[in-house]
């Protein structure tokens, strides 16, 4: 059963009554004695700041209550999971017991959705309908987001939730991972589960290394992951013997892998070899070397050499090695340490592949020339180069001229004007102006930087450079000329943006203004949200018709789709920028959501704002939560989600 509105209203009401505040460490530097009047003024200033902070927190908590009330009316379980999970993470610091209840409610939503999907598949006689697959994938995204937000707060609880919400189908697949087709869909799904569990074990290791070791062994039975390497690194100092044993066991597993069918195993082998064979360098510092000598962590070098030998033999005989020759280059430094007698074989193999690539792939010849040739040689080569790479030869030559110790700007412009492809030519000219701009900026020549900006054809690019000037001048404490840069940029942005670049320019300018004039930021964004509402509805309509199938679920978009649309159309606003606007005018910032017609879209925007404010107030969980994007917990594959699936 989904949590009721009354339950959330009760929860938030109690939370408001408690009015628990975040504790902030405050430091005061008293290098010089201050007068009584100055001290009193500082005290009064601190009191006013604390009042503002408390008022902002009170409004953010009230907004959270509003969101919780509205979330109960969401139609899609995946949306309820996302919203409830976020609310639980935000509540955690002030009321852990109730936060756990909310997160347990989100977990139950996942279980209910999986059961419903299973029942539906049974009724239809198939579990492979397009609608079911999409719903399942979206729910797994929400599930991983839930544990990602929870992991820094209570990693053990996050692991419990993750395992409790694992579907019966996935649990069955994980019981026999060796039977799965390498690199297939089920293999990747199982690997995602293993990766996430290792990442959670890594988090648990911060507080309970012994528990993390037991978990790592348990997960290792199911498979390997890149996160296991991070866990081994974390355990080296606290549980060195156990870390050594884990490393040796992982190496033994990789020795039995079939590199011809499992590219994931080959990548893992290369990573494990590279990381586990590393030793502190001679210039790593006395303390570093001494700690390494005292450490009981040691990997069986015989196992490392055997794995290196297996990889070498594979690279030497595999006919497809040309497609991943970069891995041979990565392996060579490790082989130099472990099996120096075999380095020459690998180098010959690498050289043969590069020569074949240079003959068959014109880009390889360009890359090789670019490493050693000067600009004029590249210009000469460009004249006889294949048409598909001719423009790249000239672009590379121009870059060398610009980045020379003494830049040859006019010669670079002449070379760029020789580029036959118009788009490449325009991009190269823009790149030239950008590099000259930063050279002037780094030299402190503001007037020269402004002159270069004036030469840029694109108004959107000009806005971006004005913002960089603003940031540079603010760092120099030149507030008045910094503000002038933004005001000049404001005259360039479109009043009614007609494309993504124009939207991005307005949003970028609004973000910059948030530091000095948040009311101007809001004035820029308010009409923009009405434009985004139009784009969102258009995107929904196009997506529905392009799917080619009738709608199979309620007419409600997911949070992943919504946040994907924000990025797609250039409406990216960072948490710090939103928090600055909210601190200046909370109600007006919250009202940005009212520019959207869809109720779920309004919830998502308000939740973004709540997260931003809580993060500003010191709640790390708020800063860690993301939508439609997993930051720390790995996902090996992604795909666009269709609304009508």
On the 0 to 100 scale, the average pLDDT is 84
Report the span from N to C terminus.
24 Å
- Estimate what percentage of residues fall within beta strands: under 5%
Number of helices: 31
How many DSSP-defined strands? 0
Q: Tell the overall outline.
A: globular
- Largest sheet: number of strands, sense, barrel closure: none
How would you characterize the overall build of this protein?
The protein has 645 residues and is mainly alpha-helical. 72% of the residues lie in helices and 0% in strands. It has 31 helices and no strands. It has helices spanning 5-18, 36-71, 77-91, 96-124, 130-150, 155-164, 168-175, 185-204, 209-220, 226-238, 240-255, 263-276, 286-294, 301-317, 325-338, 343-360, 362-372, 375-384, 387-402, 409-416, 422-442, 446-455, 459-475, 479-490, 500-513, 518-546, 559-568, 575-584, 586-590, 599-616, 620-624. Helix 3 (77-91) runs parallel beside helix 5 (130-150). The two termini are 24 Å apart. Residues 1-32, 124-134, 282-289, 548-552 and 626-645 have low confidence and may be disordered.
């Amino acid at each position: 059963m989904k949590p009721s509105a009354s339950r959330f209203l009760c929860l938030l009401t109690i939370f408001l009554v408690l009015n628990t505040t975040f504790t902030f460490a405050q430091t005061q530097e008293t290098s010089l004695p201050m007068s009584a009047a100055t001290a009193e003024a500082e005290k009064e200033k601190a009191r006013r700041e604390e009042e503002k902070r408390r008022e902002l927190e009170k409004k953010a908590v009230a907004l959270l209550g509003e969101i919780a009330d509205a979330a109960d009316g969401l139609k899609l379980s995946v949306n309820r999971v996302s919203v409830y999970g976020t609310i639980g993470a935000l509540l955690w610091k002030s009321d852990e017991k109730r936060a756990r209840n909310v997160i347990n409610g989100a977990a139950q939503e996942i279980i209910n959705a999986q059961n419903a999907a299973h029942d539906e598949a049974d009724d239809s006689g198939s579990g492979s309908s397009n609608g079911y697959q999409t719903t399942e994938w979206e729910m797994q995204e929400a599930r991983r987001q839930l544990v990602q937000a929870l992991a820094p707060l209570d990693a053990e609880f996050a692991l419990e939730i993750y395992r409790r919400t694992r579907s019966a189908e996935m649990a069955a697949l994980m019981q026999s991972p060796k039977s799965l087709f390498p690199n297939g869909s089920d293999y990747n799904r199982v690997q995602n589960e293993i990766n996430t569990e290792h990442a959670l074990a890594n988090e648990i290791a911060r507080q309970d290394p012994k528990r993390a070791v037991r978990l790592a062994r348990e997960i290792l039975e199911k498979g390997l992951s890149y996160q296991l390497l991070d866990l081994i690194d974390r355990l080296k100092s606290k549980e060195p013997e156990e870390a050594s044993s884990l490393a040796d066991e992982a190496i033994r597993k990789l020795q039995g892998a079939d590199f011809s069918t499992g590219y994931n195993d080959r990548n893992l082998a290369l990573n494990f070899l590279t990381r586990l064979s590393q030793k502190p360098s001679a210039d790593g510092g006395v303390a570093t070397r001494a700690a390494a000598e005292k450490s009981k962590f040691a990997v069986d070098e015989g196992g490392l050499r055997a794995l290196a030998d297996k990889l070498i033999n594979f690279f030497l005989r595999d006919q497809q090695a040309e497609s991943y020759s970069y891995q041979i280059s990565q392996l060579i430094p490790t082989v130099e340490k472990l099996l120096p007698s075999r380095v020459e074989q690998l180098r010959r193999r690498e050289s043969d592949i590069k020569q074949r690539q240079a003959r068959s792939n014109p880009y390889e010849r360009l890359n090789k020339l670019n490493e050693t040739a000067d600009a004029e040689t590249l210009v000469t080569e460009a004249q006889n180069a294949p048409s598909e790479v001719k423009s790249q030869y000239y672009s590379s030559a121009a870059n060398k001229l610009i980045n020379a110790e003494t830049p040859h700007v006019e010669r670079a412009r002449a070379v760029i004007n020789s580029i036959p492809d118009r788009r490449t030519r325009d991009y190269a000219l823009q790149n030239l102006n950008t590099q000259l701009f930063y050279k002037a900026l780094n030299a402190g020549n503001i007037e020269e930087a402004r002159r270069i900006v004036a030469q840029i054809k694109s108004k959107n690019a000009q806005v971006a450079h004005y913002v960089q000037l603003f940031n540079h001048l603010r760092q120099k404490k030149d507030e008045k000329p910094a503000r002038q840069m933004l005001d000049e940029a404001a005259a360039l942005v479109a009043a009614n943006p007609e494309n993504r670049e124009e939207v991005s320019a307005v949003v970028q300018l609004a973000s910059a203004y948030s530091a000095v004039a948040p009311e101007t930021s809001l004035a820029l964004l308010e009409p923009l949200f009405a434009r985004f509402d139009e784009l969102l509805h258009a995107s929904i309509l196009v997506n529905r018709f392009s799917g080619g199938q009738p709608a199979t679920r309620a007419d409600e978009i997911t949070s992943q789709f919504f946040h994907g649309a924000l990025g797609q159309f250039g409406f990216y606003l960072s948490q710090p920028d939103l928090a600055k606007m909210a601190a200046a005018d909370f109600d007006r910032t919250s009202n940005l959501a009212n520019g959207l017609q869809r109720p779920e879209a309004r919830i998502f925007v308000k939740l973004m704002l709540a997260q931003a404010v809580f993060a500003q107030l010191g709640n790390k969980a708020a800063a860690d939560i993301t939508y439609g994007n997993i930051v720390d917990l790995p996902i090996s594959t992604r795909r666009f989600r269709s609304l009508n699936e």
